[in-house]
What we know:
alpha+beta, 2 domains, four-stranded antiparallel beta sheet
Amino acid sequence: MYVVRNKTNGKYKKNGTWTHNINEARVYPRTCDAVQSVGVYKEVLKYKLSLPDNFELVEVNVSIKETETDGFDYTYVDSSVVDAVAWKEDRLRVVFNTGSKYEYSPVPRVVATGMIGTNSVGKFFNRYITGIYKYEKVG
């Protein structure tokens, strides 16, 4: 996900539309290049977007997937509450910033995908997961 801003007038641009609202300007690429750091990703985006000098990338999020020994593919998310999320066969695994890992079930794939793609993972978790699905601590 990224946001482009015009340094001259302070407006954000998305698909040719200008806005003062940064939330409306967020762009979620369909595919993400494998990168080693957010800094490298920013440089790749600048090159791909061919930004003029008066434009800058003001917000960049990178989702990195890892397969852990438990067989789940974890997507690391940008959240103050959650570190990573994984889904497999109606089971959602959530790794919290505290290091605790919980499994929720039965969780539909669409709910897990929504949690990974949302702007606020914590709010999504509280609204659509907490109190709705059975859970157990798994790590």
